TrEMBL record:
Name under which the protein is recorded: Probable nicotinate-nucleotide adenylyltransferase
Role: Catalyzes the reversible adenylation of nicotinate mononucleotide (NaMN) to nicotinic acid adenine dinucleotide (NaAD).
Upper lineage: Bacteria, Pseudomonadati, Pseudomonadota, Betaproteobacteria, Burkholderiales
Catalysed transformations (reactions): nicotinate beta-D-ribonucleotide + ATP + H(+) = deamido-NAD(+) + diphosphate
Chain ranges passing through the membrane: none
Family: Belongs to the NadD family.
Length: 215
């Protein structure tokens, strides 16, 4: 059987339990061999609070010790300029070869935004796309751009089919319902709350040690 790698890209400012739930959910659904977590230098988000290095360190702490293999892939922060997923997928595809199943994970908010991504329709040539529900972001056709909804529906397949093919399919996890966002966490920390139920304890310790998200 082909190897299967799940890819989780994100800003992670900071990483939180919603990211862990998204990764773990699809690792189980897909029966994937590895989760690669890729901290980004996002071109659509201004004024990040933690540095790229701090965000990558928090990601490494959060994803340590899970019951499946995890690789923290620093290629996007190493690029040192705003990053596009198309470039990252091309690099990973060149590294792993044509047959490995690559499954890019995202929440419903990014599906609503997918048609703004660089070369978005070419992305399906390089990977599968797996979308999880997220409170506050609908997955119905009215909330997703028409061209994205069409691509998504046409390519929709079971997780086992994604595992058996290299790229080009989509899959939906409608049952994830983690009401957590980095925006809400930053706001809570700024108010002086600890947000302990939303962030892994090791990440909370890191945030406190580095005086992050105070203002
Ligand atoms: N609670 C969640 N449930 C499902 N997916 C999520 C959740 N939080 C984040 N994601 C997904 O994880 C990826 C990285 O998210 P990101 O690091 O931007 O966190 P965020 O909470 O969305 O941040 P912000 O509030 O700053 O926009 C995106 O694909 C996003 O959709
Ligand atoms: O390639 C793009 O144009 C693009 C535009 C928006 C988001 N992305 C990717 O989507 C992932 C989640 O992004 P975000 O902003 O929700 O943290 C992350 O890997 C980003 O690099 C990619």
């Amino acid at each position: 059987m082909n190897a299967c790698i799940a890819l989780l890209g994100g800003t992670f400012d900071p990483v939180h339990k919603g990211h862990l739930a998204l990764g773990a959910h699809f690792m189980q659904l897909l029966g994937a061999d590895q989760l690669r977590v890729i901290p980004s230098l996002p071109w659509q988000k201004a004024a990040l609070q933690a540095t790229p290095e701090q965000r990558a360190e928090m990601v490494a702490l959060a994803f340590a010790g899970l019951p499946f293999p995890v690789l923290i892939d620093r290629q996007e922060i190493a690029r040192g300029k705003a990053t596009y997923t198309i470039d990252t997928l091309r690099a990973i595809r060149a590294e792993v070869g044509a047959d490995v199943s690559l499954c890019f994970l995202m929440g419903a908010d990014q599906l609503q935004n997918l048609d703004s991504w660089q070369e978005w329709s070419t992305l399906f040539e390089l990977a599968h796309f797996c979308v999880a529900a997220r409170p506050g972001f609908a997955l119905d056709d009215a909330s997703v751009p028409t061209a994205v909804a069409e691509q998504f529906q046409r390519r929709l397949a079971s997780p086992s089919r994604l595992r058996g093919a290299a790229a080009g399919l989509t899959c939906l996890a409608a049952d994830l319902a983690e009401d957590i966002s980095a925006t809400a966490i930053r706001a809570a920390l700024q108010r002086g709350e600890r947000a302990a139920s939303l962030i892994p304890p090791v990440v909370l310790d890191y945030i406190e040690q580095h005086n992050l998200y105070k203002n």
